[in-house]
Amino acid sequence: MDLGIRGRKALVCAASKGLGKACAMSLAREGVAVTIVARTAGPLAETAEEIRKATEVKVTAVAADITTDAGRAAALEACPAPDILVNNAGGPPPGDFHNWDRDDWIKAIDANMLTSIFLIKATVDGMVERRFGRVVNITSSAVKAPIDVLGLSNGARSGLTGFIAGIARNFAQHNVTINNLLPGRFATDRLTANFPATAKARGVSVEQVADELKRQIPARRFGDPHEFGEACAYLCSAQAGYVTGQNFLIDGGAYPGTF
Prior knowledge:
Layout: E1 9-12, H1 18-29, E2 33-38, H2 41-55, E3 59-63, H3 69-78, E4 84-87, H4 102-130, E5 133-138, H5 151-167, E6 176-183, H6 189-192, H7 195-202, H8 206-215, H9 225-235, E7 247-250
Parallel strand pairs: 1-2, 1-4, 2-3, 4-5, 5-6, 6-7
């Protein structure tokens, strides 16, 4: 299906790898010129070249920390009038809430709530003027099913979710939509990075650690980042103009609730 966004411009955050990269690739395959942002220049440049070769669209790489004022300024200088904004930032570390101080909370809120809000603030009025805009915020399945050791993420991302619920309807009449994608366990470096340490601590194989996690998912597998990218591309499509303020859970059926 032609998603009707060929020739549009997208700003995709935290896009050198994982789910952000998958979103950028799926958008580029639809003919969208993408500006991708990540902190580490080397992997970012490699991803930019990979997308160019796969899609032949214009790809601009900005090595910056999107969670800072300077990083957002650099990203918006490279892509000042995006038609599509994909907000994404790495989550804060796990831990016990007794050990988190104010600085820990402020850092989490800056990265996983305020960064997205500030980028929306900087771009949404231009989308309204052009009568087209798509904002997709990558949050987490923990917004619906909180995980106690991820309290920093639970709190900050839930704050963003509530904010989006409050503003999304204001822009729908201008063909500007704002939605959230909530990933469960996907086969990314972020998921698998801790497998070796967990396996060593338990005296089992890495494969056993992975298999045990997969058995907790009704689909009995981890998600493919490509699947996530395609879902993002659909929410950015011309056909998705009647969808806004929604939270799309993509977790292989792990969340057991009705709503």
